[in-house]
Amino acid sequence: MLQMVDRGAELGQQLVENQLQIDLLLLQQSLLAAEFVRTDFWDWEGSATPYDWIRINCHLASNTVGDRVTVGERMTELAASVQAVEAREIGYTHLVVMARTADAVGERFDESQLLQKARQSSPGKFRHICDHYRHSADPDAYAAEQFEKYEQRGLSISRWEDGSLILNGVLDPVEGVALRSALEPLARKSGLHDQRTRKQRLADALVELTTHGGKQKVSLQVTSSIETLLGQTGAPGAEAEFSLPISSKTVERWACDCSVTRVLLQDSVVIDVGRAERTIKGPRRRALVARDQHCRWTDCERPASACDGHHLNHWIRGGGGEIENQVLLCHRHHWMVHEGNWQLVKTDDGRMMPIAPTFHFARSREPD
Predict the structure, then answer these.
(1) pLDDT tens-digit map of 251-276
(2) Phi, psi of 315 (to 5 degrees)
(3) Are 133 and 139 in contact (CB under 8 A)?
(4) Which of 5, 63, 319, 351 is most buried (most C-beta within 10 Å)?
(5) Residues near 82 by Cβ (< 8 Å), separated by ≥ 6?
């Protein structure tokens, strides 16, 4: 037994030493990659981009190439972090997260603040910290990134010749956490004799969820500060199990009328805990359904059972709970009002007029 412990200590030390050498080589590779993309050799060789040349000739994934170049381009401004890698205080993976954060935040980036966190955290936890940092630096940009992920959502359904159903899909982190929160309780082992694999249990959970007609109660808790809910700069993202930090836009929608448990903090003190039920309920909900009957977005007829109650003037900004301040919106159109930045204006005759968000285009290039 003692020999095994000694051997394990020897192997562990060798792993640590080897990883340091790998990290140092990766620093060199990052500098080389950043310098290479500024040449035109890749074009002379017939590659579409310098990134493609590196990917093909160095046998790397596209994301890995992007990480290397980003680190190489920012090594000068991340000098303290590079020294921390060389001193074995953090790893190269921490540096990748740091560089990506600097790339996203721009002038608001503060290396000293994040380097202290990096020294105390694993790379995975550090990425989570950096996501909160990015939200606090620019909530609108963080929400825009979540919008891009939402736009990449998709689900394909096909069949094998034997009739088996094939599902292949991608959900954005926010919608994904809702599905996972619904599936995880149903996918737990049912006892000592449950020999199903995790994949089989998840498949069974999905079938159970759908065959129950969507009536399975989902326990989803979101923790947010008042500052986050108000979308103030400097506020971190909200927290939910299984999810990356959530933008203030999504928190605003969920706080509007949604079946989630919300925990609101102010100065790290819990000031409100809402139960996992609709905030518009009882007689008010019935009155709202009777009046609107379906989603009030133009030409949308999703039934009331598939709709949330949307506050035209959100309660966090002083809006009241009266029915005149509420309207039924389906999931998609409720999302468009909050995360999508659409506006919903009530006309004098009581109709709801959707107004598209304003887009700012860069000036066209002037003649040389």
Answers:
(1) 777 777 665 666 767 666 665 565 44
(2) -65, -25
(3) no
(4) 319
(5) 27, 75, 95
CA distance 233 to 229: 11
> How far apart are alpha carbons 280 and 328 in whole angstroms?
10
Q: What is the identity of the amino acid at 292?
A: D
DSSP symbol at 46 = T
DSSP per-residue letters across 304-320: GGGEEEEESS-GGGT--
Q: Is the pLDDT of residue 47 over 90?
A: yes
The dihedral sign for the CA sequence 25, 31, 34, 38: negative
Please give the Cα distance from 310 to 328 (Å, whole number).
6
**Closest C-alpha among 121, 122, 117, 77 to residue 99:** 77
Instruction: Decide the pairing of beta strands 307-311 and 239-240.
Output: unpaired
Locate 3 and state its tokens.
Answer: 């020999």
| Alpha carbon 160 to chain centroid, angstroms | 33
Query: What CA–CA distance (Å, rounded) separates 194 from 185?
Result: 15
**What DSSP assignment string belongs to 180-236?**
HHHHHHHTS--STT----HHHHHHHHHHHHHHTTT------EEEEEHHHHTT-TTPP
pLDDT tens for 156-166 read 999 888 878 89
Side-chain half-sphere CA neighbours of 100 within 13 A? 19
Which residue bears the tokens 């977005």?
297
Are 101 and 135 contacting, i.e. CB atoms less than 8 angstroms apart? no
Residue appearing with tokens 């999810």: 243
What is the maximum alpha-carbon separation in the chain?
85
% of residues, the chain, pLDDT over 70: 86
Rounded Cα distance between 239 and 260, Å, is 13
Q: Distance between CA 139 and CA 233 in Å, rounded?
A: 6
The whole-angstrom distance between residue 337's C-alpha and the CA centroid of its chain comes to 19
Is 0.70 topped by the overall pTM?
no
- Say if CB 245 and CB 238 are below 8 A apart: yes
Pair of tokens at residue 121: 């955290």
For position 154, what pLDDT does the model report? 94
Question: What value, to the nearest 5°, has the Cα angle with vertex 13 and ends 7 and 14?
Answer: 90
